[in-house]
Amino acid sequence: MIIAGYNPNSCVDYPGNIASVIFLPNCPLRCVYCHNKPMLDGEYEAIPYEEVLERIKKNKLFLDGVVITGGEPTLTPIEDLKKLISDIKSLNLLVKIDTCGSSPKVLEQLLPLVDYVAMDIKAPLDKYSMITPATDKLMENISKSIELVKQAKDYEFRTTLDPKLTVDDIETIAKMIEGAKAYYIQQFVATDFYYPKAYSSDYLKWCVETANKYVKTASRGG
Ligand code: SF4
Fold first, then answer.
1. Whole-Å CA distances, 163 to 23, 35, 109, 148, 160
2. Tens-digit pLDDT profile for residues 28-58
3. Better pLDDT: 183 or 41
4. What pLDDT, on the 0 to 100 scale, is given for residue 222?
5. Which residue among 29, 99, 107 has the greatest number of ligand 1 atoms within 8 angstroms of its CB, and so is best to mutate?
6. 148 CA distance to ligand 1 centroid (A)?
7. SS3 of 131, please?
8. CA-CA distance, 25 to 130, in Å (whole number)?
């Protein structure tokens, strides 16, 4: 199994928990604002699986859980993912998985095994192509994943407020996930190759207030 990165300690990747973060490579999307491009383009130094496990074991007393993120974790072979989750669980740690929802078939198998899932929604379905190359199949998969995630035991949806999105787009997304337990809207952060001006905090607040009409809790994401 290829591990592209490892952060031993994070307070912001698993709500309410201190977690290690494991980065798995590759992603079927190519979001304009992606901050993990090296991980998508093979420009990383792989870390041996046993080394990561050993470091988690050593840190275990200071951790609540482990976040499996990417890239897109569901592109890693399912048997490898199951083993990783099982190894983490054997340490009595929680497991959270992050996904863009591109592989509902894999997600369906993972959801009973993990404690928390976070799914990114990039835009209203008919506007995905503003953020990432999108196909009908991808949109179909994302719709299926939304329904699966809503049935998970604990979950969140989240959207990066790219300046191409408007408050009306956020309202459309909130309607897509109507009734969802948690929806985070996070501020867009420019990269070296994509740097439109981010919306003001007031605009983000307006987006959060608008989304709150449709979901149980909408908040500003970190
Ligand atoms: S889904 Fe995430 S990892 Fe994949 S391209 Fe978009 S921002 Fe990057």
1. 27, 16, 35, 28, 9
2. 999 999 999 988 989 999 999 999 999 999 9
3. 183
4. 76
5. 29
6. 20
7. coil
8. 23
Minimum CA distance residue for ligand 1 atom 6? 31
pLDDT digits (tens, 9 = 90+) for 46-100: 999 999 999 999 999 999 999 999 999 999 999 999 999 999 999 999 999 999 9
CA of 92 to the centre of ligand 1 (A): 29
Question: In degrees rounded to 5, what are phi and psi of residue 221?
Answer: -85, 160
Average pLDDT of the chain to the nearest whole number? 97
The CATH architecture assigned to 5-221 reads: Alpha-Beta Barrel (3.20)
Q: What percent of the chain has pLDDT over 70?
A: 100
**Contact between residue 149 and residue 116 where contact means Cβ atoms under 8 Å apart:** no
Question: What residue segments make up the domains of the chain, in order of their start?
Answer: 5-221
In the reported structure, the alpha carbon of residue 121 is separated from the centroid of ligand 1 by a whole-number distance in angstroms of: 11
Q: Which atom of ligand 1 is nearest to the CA of 33?
A: 7
Q: What is the mean pLDDT of residues 5-15?
A: 96
| Largest separation between any pair of C-alpha atoms in the chain | 47
Q: From the CB of 218, is ligand 1 less than 6 Å away?
A: no
Query: From the CB of 31, is ligand 1 less than 6 Å away?
Result: yes
- d(CA 4, ligand 1 centre) in Å: 14
